[in-house]
Recover the amino acids of this structure.
């Protein structure tokens, strides 16, 4: 019992180490280089280009989903592609996050009246951050990643909060 | 592994298409039966894409490999089909540009220009000189931006990260200029039937000219960095030769056609907007290998720079748009208008019934024709070369699937 | 000679290195957007916070994606009362056609590109709700939640 | 201190050095590549982004470790260790200073080269066990290139061995102390007789470290991530670390064999003795910078070009050169055997 208090899931040591790991995770978000349409040029190519340099924030691309933490869904996802997108998401190791980049990934965008287009990628994946725009600026995806970092770091805060409340 | 689709009989291999004779392709099909070749090794079938770094989007290639050699290729498209042609039937004529922007999403102005030209032809609108010149200027700037994407990803395909990032650096300046002119970095929605949305902002001319001066230096650096590299030359020379006959048979246009030695360019042969008044050369390749496609595109960038200088220098005055009604209502009929986009001839075939929306719109996209070529060209090359070949043809999946 | 091009390439990369980085350190530095930049649609307001929308429906009809939704009720004295002007930011392609169409200049394209949202509901906004007026209420709500350690809006704890 | 304890401490120091090196080199690579491409590289995490790689390592450690369904479980598990261990073992014979080394092997040069060649076995294991076609092609390619370039790499160091008559790395370094006629440092690189050997050594060593232009085995644009495609979490991290450790070893070997190791010209021994490890590390890091510079510039070579270059040009060339070199030092009696 005593040891449980020190190392259990709600112990301070556990939450504090989780906090450290969350800090590490939020600062090393490797994204999966998978863009389907227009947004890939802005969100993946220009955002990692020299002007907006994603690498500054510790974000760089991996071609294999096994090594990625974040999936940026940049571009239209239609019914044929949806299966692939879902497979790629399933292949990523936990913990993983999804950023829906651009109008098409958010809601289907300009093409949502066409029956073949998926009405937002959140129909098949749990999306963490939505970035409106068609396509958004490279800064928009940087801003979205900062929001995502805040969200990741906030998890431990919430647990500390809950722990304080339970006393 | 799927079931082999052949049976072994005493006289050899029986395929559904007939007897397999070693050394010759089976009758009626090009595919060599799976699992059989002269070495007796099993063929490897790899699915390249839709998520693959060198397919530049969501192209899916089913590649059969014998060791590292490509035996057959099956191109599977449609992962980005989003119904641009169908949706166009419910869009007003001056709103068609927003759809065309997202068709070929790297050479954006050309799609808008094609739609505008088609509608103008139908309604017999006379475009003011200034509007035509502004359109041509933005079109050439876009061509540079698009070729830079090709250059960067081509570099990335060969494994050189530097070229890609340097190309992005130069593209940033271009996109800044285009953003200042039109309001967005990529989807400009700037060209409309009758002219353009807004006049050029003040002071943009000097920015364009200073960009031309710096980019001229950078372009030569790019050429020396990638084209001057012996490793790169060894990899592209003599690879992926597209003969004149093949190029014509598959309906190639643009730089891919010109690399094969056929000098067709919409800008010169069916001139539109301000092109008749400009001086420019059309580079032509010799044998149509990857190296020719590379040099032709690099030379096109230099010609674009030359044109941009002429366009900025000789910009006429006057209104930037013709007098057009608020809601366009072209007479019933059909019309075809084409422009030279960065990938070849981009054409718009409009059928109208007198309403405010098209009855049917057909979008002739150059990349779709290039895509068909892969099944013909890739077999016989090494897998590494196949990846580079995809890069050298410069396809854009938004245009292929629409 | 074989290898000359390679050495020349090395020279070029070194020259580029000496040119220095061109990076904009985004959260700390910003690119100034041109005047014509088009981001999310906003409603033009005068000093008192009043908007100019007359519910003429032109923008709703002009939008190629049908993302604007305007509902109004006509009172007995024929005056229009606008219920809402709903705008699906998440589907907007920011083409500016509604702003061009508006005969009363009641709409404009905003210049704020930091539009990332954490939930899908936030992607649909009512343009006519005055954000400035609603701000105090929101600030009050935020003050009830204790501030997080590394959680400040532009730049985390150890950014340098 | 008992000799066993001392050697244990040395081994621990080598392990620590290797891990530190990997972490520092990844950071350095990202900064150097960033600068080469007119970017910044990681700057926001910690002062000047120094905490970036520790964060990456922490993250990789806490990632989910996926074992795909169809993999050969034993091999899949061993492969990262089989890649990581040889590159760790290779640290054993590197002389950081006259006294700083794990062990002063008489066959140090041979040992280092042999141990480094074990890496390719691990890569093949990874490629085969992953049950992924990209991995398989990557593993095959890596074995092909490693076997082809083992031979010129071994042969290219022979002139040095013939000259000094020993395989002991610290003796090779000692043979390079002093100056030629009081002007040039007496490093082998300043002697034109060693230039052909040096060029061949550098080319084959570049191939050993799996870096652009010779990164066919993990060619990102062709094979997704090559042999490491199916690896996640710290298993992938081990591949990553060992790659950088290899580049350190290769650079250290080049410095030892051709750039005089920890020696400096015109510096008396008593001054040099305390700063020798620093001098050595500085030289090695300059070498690594050149590797990164090459990495940021060149496109990738094609596999068959590479193999033809090895078997048709490099091996005949190095054999011829050994013959010519042997005649020259015999005829003019140039050899300076030590010990």
């Amino acid at each position: 019992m005593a040891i449980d208090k020190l190392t259990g899931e709600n112990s301070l040591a556990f939450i504090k180490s989780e906090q450290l790991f969350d800090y590490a995770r939020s600062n090393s978000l490797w994204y999966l280089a998978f863009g389907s349409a227009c947004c890939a040029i802005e969100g993946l190519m220009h955002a990692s280009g020299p002007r907006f340099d994603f690498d500054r924030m510790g974000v760089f691309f991996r071609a294999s989903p096994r090594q990625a933490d974040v999936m940026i869904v940049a571009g239209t996802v239609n019914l044929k592609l949806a299966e692939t997108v879902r497979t790629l998401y399933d292949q990523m190791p936990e913990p993983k996050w999804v950023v829906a980049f651009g109008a098409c990934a958010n809601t289907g965008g300009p093409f949502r009246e066409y029956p073949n287009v998926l009405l937002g990628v959140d129909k098949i994946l749990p999306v963490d951050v939505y970035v409106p725009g068609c396509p958004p600026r490279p800064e928009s995806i940087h801003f979205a990643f900062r929001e995502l970092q805040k969200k990741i770091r906030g998890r431990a805060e919430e647990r500390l909060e809950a722990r304080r409340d339970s006393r | 592994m799927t079931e082999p689709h052949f049976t072994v009989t005493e006289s050899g291999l029986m395929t559904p298409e007939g007897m397999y004779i070693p050394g010759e392709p089976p009758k009626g099909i090009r595919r060599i039966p799976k699992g059989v070749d002269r070495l007796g090794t099993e063929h490897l079938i790899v699915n390249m894409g839709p998520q693959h770094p060198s397919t530049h989007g969501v192209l899916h290639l089913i590649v059969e490999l014998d060791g590292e050699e490509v035996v057959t290729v099956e191109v599977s498209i449609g992962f980005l089909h989003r119904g641009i042609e169908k949706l166009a039937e419910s869009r007003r004529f001056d709103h068609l540009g927003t759809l065309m922007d997202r068709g070929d999403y790297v050479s954006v102005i050309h799609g808008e220009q094609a739609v505008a030209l088609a509608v103008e032809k139908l309604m017999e609108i006379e475009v003011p000189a200034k509007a035509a010149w502004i359109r041509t200027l933005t079109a050439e700037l876009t061509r540079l931006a698009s070729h830079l994407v090709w250059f960067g990803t081509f570099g990335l395909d060969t494994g050189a990260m530097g070229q890609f990032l340097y190309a992005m650096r130069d593209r940033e300046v271009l996109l800044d200029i285009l953003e200042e002119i039109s309001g967005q970095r990529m989807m400009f929605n700037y060209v409309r039937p009758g002219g353009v949305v807004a006049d050029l902002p003040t002071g943009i001319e000097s920015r364009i000219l200073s960009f031309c001066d710096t980019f001229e230096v950078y372009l030569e650096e790019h050429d020396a960095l990638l084209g001057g590299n012996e490793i790169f030359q060894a990899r592209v020379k003599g690879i992926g030769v597209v003969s004149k006959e093949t190029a014509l048979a598959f309906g190639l246009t643009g730089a891919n056609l010109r690399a094969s030695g056929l000098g067709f360019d919409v800008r010169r042969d069916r001139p539109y907007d301000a092109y008749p008044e400009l001086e420019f050369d059309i580079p032509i390749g010799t044998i149509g290998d990857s190296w020719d496609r590379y040099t032709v595109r690099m030379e096109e960038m230099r010609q674009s720079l030359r044109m941009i200088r002429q366009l900025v220098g000789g910009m006429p005055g006057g209104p930037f748009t013709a007098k057009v009604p608020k809601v366009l209502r072209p007479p019933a009929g059909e019309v075809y208008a084409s422009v030279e986009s960065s990938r070849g001839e981009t054409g718009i075939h409009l059928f109208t019934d007198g309403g405010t929306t098209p009855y049917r719109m057909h979008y002739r996209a150059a990349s779709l024709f290039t895509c068909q070529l892969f099944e013909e060209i890739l077999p016989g090359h090494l897998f590494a070369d196949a990846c580079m070949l995809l890069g050298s043809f410069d396809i854009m999946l938004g245009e292929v699937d629409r | 000679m074989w290898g000359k091009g390679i050495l020349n390439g090395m020279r070029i990369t070194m020259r580029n290195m000496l040119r220095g980085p061109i990076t904009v350190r985004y959260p700390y530095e910003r690119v100034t957007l041109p005047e014509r930049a088009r981001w999310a649609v906003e409603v033009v307001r005068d000093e008192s916070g009043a908007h100019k929308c007359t519910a003429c429906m032109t923008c709703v009809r002009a939008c190629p994606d049908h993302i604007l939704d305007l509902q109004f009720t006509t009172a007995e004295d024929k005056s229009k009362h606008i219920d809402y002007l709903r705008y699906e930011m998440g589907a907007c392609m920011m083409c500016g056609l509604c702003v061009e169409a508006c005969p009363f200049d009641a709409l404009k394209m905003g210049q704020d590109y930091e539009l990332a949202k954490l939930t899908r509901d936030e992607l649909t906004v009512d343009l006519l709700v005055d954000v400035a007026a609603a701000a105090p209420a929101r600030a009050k709500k935020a003050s009830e939640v204790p501030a997080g350690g590394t959680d400040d809006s532009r730049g985390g704890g150890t950014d340098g | 201190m008992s000799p066993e304890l001392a050697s244990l401490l040395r081994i621990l120091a080598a392990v620590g050095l290797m891990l530190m090196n990997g972490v520092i080199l990844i950071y350095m690579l990202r900064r150097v590549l960033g600068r080469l491409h007119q970017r910044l590289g990681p700057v926001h995490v910690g002062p000047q982004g120094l905490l970036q790689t520790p964060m990456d390592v922490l993250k990789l450690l806490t990632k989910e470790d996926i074992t795909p369904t169809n993999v050969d479980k034993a091999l899949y598990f061993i492969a990262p260790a089989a890649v990581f261990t040889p590159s760790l073992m290779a640290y054993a014979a590197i002389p950081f200073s006259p006294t700083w080394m794990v062990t002063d092997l008489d066959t140090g040069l041979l040992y280092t080269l042999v141990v480094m060649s074990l890496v390719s076995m691990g890569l093949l294991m990874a490629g085969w066990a992953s049950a992924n076609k990209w991995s398989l092609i990557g593993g095959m390619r890596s074995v092909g290139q490693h076997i082809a370039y083992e031979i010129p790499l071994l042969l290219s160091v022979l002139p040095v061995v013939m000259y000094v008559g020993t395989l002991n790395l610290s003796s090779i370094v000692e043979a390079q102390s002093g100056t030629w006629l009081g002007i040039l440092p007496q490093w082998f690189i300043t002697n034109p007789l060693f230039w052909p050997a040096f060029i061949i050594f550098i080319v084959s060593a570049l191939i050993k470290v799996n870096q652009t232009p010779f990164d066919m085995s993990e060619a990102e644009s062709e094979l997704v991530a090559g042999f490491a495609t199916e690896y996640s979490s710290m298993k992938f991290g081990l591949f990553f670390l060992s790659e950088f450790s290899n580049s350190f070893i290769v650079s250290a070997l080049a410095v030892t064999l051709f750039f005089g190791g920890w020696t400096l010209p015109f510096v008396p021994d008593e001054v040099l003795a305390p700063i020798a490890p620093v001098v050595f590390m500085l030289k090695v890091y300059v070498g690594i910078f050149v590797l990164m510079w090459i990495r940021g510039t060149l496109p990738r070579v094609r596999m068959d070009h590479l193999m033809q270059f090895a078997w048709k040009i490099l091996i005949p060339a190095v054999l011829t050169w050994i013959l010519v070199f042997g005649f020259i030092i015999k005829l003019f009696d140039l050899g300076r055997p030590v010990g």
